[in-house]
Design a protein that fits this description.
Elements lengths: L1 H36 L5 H11 L1 E5 L2 E4 H29 L3 E4 L6 E4 L6 E2 L6 E2 L2 E5 L2
Antiparallel strand pairs: 1-2, 3-4, 3-7, 5-6
The protein binds zinc ion.
Zinc ion binds next to loops.
Length: about 140
C-alpha cells in the first residue's frame, strides 16, 4: 500500500511539475507578445499573427517561433493534466474499500473510496454519506 501511495504522490508531483512548466512557457510567450499586441484593436488576431511570425531567440543559433513555444507549452500543460488524472485513477483503483452509511435510510454500502456525495444504492437519493469503516 505504501508503495502505491508513494507512486501516486510522485505522479502528482510530476503532473504538477508539467503543469507548472507549461504555464511558465505560456506565460513567457504572452509576456513577450503582450506589449506588441495590446494596442491592437483586435487583440486575438494580432496575437495570432504575432505568434506565427515572431521568432524567439534562445541564443547560440537556437530559435523557435512563438507559436511553437505556445504549442509546446499547451502540450506540456496537457501532459501535466493527463499525468494528474492518471495518478488519480491509480489511486482510486488501488484504493481501499470504505463502508458508507446513508443518512436517510440508514443502509450501508461499500464504495471504492469515500466521496463527499454519492448516490445511495438503497433509496436512490443523492446523499452525503458518512464513512463507517475503512477496510482493505
Ligand atoms: Zn439511502
Amino acid at each position: 500500500m505504501k508503495r502505491i501511495i508513494r507512486r501516486r504522490k510522485s505522479g502528482y508531483a510530476l503532473g504538477f511539475a508539467f503543469c507548472f512548466v507549461g504555464l511558465i512557457v505560456l506565460f513567457a510567450v504572452l509576456w513577450n507578445a503582450w506589449p506588441n499586441v495590446s494596442d491592437s484593436p483586435d487583440v486575438f488576431s494580432a496575437l495570432g499573427s504575432y505568434l506565427l511570425t515572431k521568432q524567439f531567440d534562445f541564443g547560440g543559433g537556437v530559435s523557435l517561433k512563438l507559436i511553437d513555444l505556445t504549442i509546446i507549452g499547451v502540450g506540456v500543460l496537457a501532459l501535466g493534466f493527463f499525468v494528474l488524472a492518471l495518478s488519480r485513477q491509480i489511486f482510486s483503483v488501488s484504493g481501499e474499500n470504505v463502508l458508507l452509511k446513508c443518512p436517510y435510510c440508514k443502509n450501508h454500502w461499500k464504495a471504492r473510496r469515500a466521496s463527499g456525495y454519492a448516490e445511495c444504492p438503497h433509496c436512490r437519493q443523492f446523499v452525503q454519506p458518512t464513512v463507517k469503516k475503512i477496510g482493505k
